[in-house]
Amino acid sequence: MVTLDNDWDRVLDGEFQKEYYLQLREFLKVQYGRYTVYPNMYKIFEALKLTPYSKVKVVILGQDPYHGPRQAHGLAFSVQKGVAIPPSLLNIYKELEADLGCFVPNNGDLTPWAEQGVLLLNTSLTVRAGQAGSHRGRGWEIFTDQVIHHLNRKETPVVFLLWGSNAKQKARYITNPHHLVLTAVHPSPLSAYRGFFGCGHFSKTNEFLRKTGQEPIDWQIPNMESVSQAGV
After folding, report:
1. pTM exceeds cut of 0.90
2. How confident is the model at residue 226 (pLDDT cuts 50, 70, 90)?
3. Three-class DSSP category at 19
4. pLDDT digits 0-9 by tens, 136-158
């Protein structure tokens, strides 16, 4: 079955044998066999693989993966290097620039956040090419609800950044009072000007992490080196 190669294997022990997940697995076998599905099947659980349970300090919840070629690689809002930065992620970068003075990088690979303890979790972990929301209601929401339940039980305080109505629905599972829940509208161009810009979530997150004795996140994504620089 699924092996995550870190402490999530212990935390999620038995989850992949539950009836809902077995049905989801059969559905995904058909989908990956007949259609183009994102992300690559080996990247479906990339968020959990890159950010072990014990290391999670911040959770950013997305919806479903990007459904365009070469975009999705298992991390919410993130795209692979060399792919154009999507509008929602560009708005996240703009808020970072206004909030913390971070420059807007030339790539959308958020792996450095994941490696620092930012769990970039989509509510649905797969999608058919060109069809947003096509794998919703198939079981992924049950799985990601369980992930949130386990994070709610963490003794170490966690910051949950819930952007948009889809993500805010998970707030009901975050009942432990020592966690911090910050909500805003989704950073998409359709809604960012209605409360995402100016939310200050990144500075508020780091302030909370410092207050709880944790290392703040370095939110600056480095620029991707050009081909000529990489070859030197």
Report:
1. yes
2. low
3. helix
4. 999 999 999 999 999 999 999 99
What are the tens digits of pLDDT across the range 51-108? 999 999 999 999 889 999 999 999 999 999 999 999 999 999 999 999 999 999 999 9
Between CA 146 and CA 193, with CA 113 as vertex, the angle to 5 degrees is 85
Distances (CA, A) of 90 to 53, 97, 110, 111, 222: 28, 10, 12, 16, 14
**Catalytic status, residue 64:** yes
Query: Residue for token digits 């870190």?
Result: 6
* Under 8 Å between Cβ of 182 and 159: yes
**Of 64, 99, 109, 218, catalytic:** 64
CA end-to-end distance (rounded Å), the chain: 42
Q: What is the b/e burial string over 37-66, where b = at least 16 CB atoms within 10 angstroms of the residue's CB?
A: bbbeeebbbbbbbbbbbebbbbbbbbbbbb
Main-chain phi, psi angles of 18, to 5 degrees = -70, 155
How do strand 127-128 and strand 37-38 relate by DSSP bridges? antiparallel
Which stretches of the chain are assigned E, i.e. beta strand?
A: 37-38, 58-62, 118-122, 127-128, 159-163, 180-184
The answer to whether the bond into 87 is cis (omega within 30° of 0) is: no
DSSP output for 20-39? HHHHHHHHHHHHHHHS-EES
